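Comment thread on ticket #2218

A.B. wrote:
> Attaching the input chain for the structure job we discussed in standup.
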Amino acid sequence: MSDKAQAVGHIPSGLFIVTTTDGEKKDGYLASWVQQVSFEPLVVALGIRAGRPGYEHIMAGKPFAINIVGEHETQYMRHFWKSYEVSPFGEIPHEVNAEGGLLIKGAKSAITCKMISKTQPGDHEVVFAEVLASNVFESEAKPKVHIRKSGLDY
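C.D. wrote:
> Ran it. Output below, let me know if you need it in another format.
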């Protein structure tokens, strides 16, 4: 492994479950590339690869949620490590807010967003999304931090 790849992997990030809902269909995936990029309006950016659960929903400009994983509760993450055949939301306590965000109740907090623009600098697209609403479930919990061994893999 090159020093360049190893050093990029050392950039710390949080862990998030990005979720979408469209009627009865509920999707989600584990993400680590999420960052605030603007104060006014309040905007976040996230990296997403085509084919991820909820990708088409997000790219269509529909509301989605970024559930922030806290150190207090991580069991629900296992459902999103790999692809799933059956939606895990039958087992995971959740709710849908008025803005259309699918919120995982075990998360530290969640923000509901809507894409305002995107770019594709490489093998992932970067989506810029305005924050529509937020929910705090465990204000005292610390966010789960992720550091990779290499910048060439998740």
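A.B. wrote:
> Thanks. Noting for the ticket: The chain has a mean pLDDT of 94.
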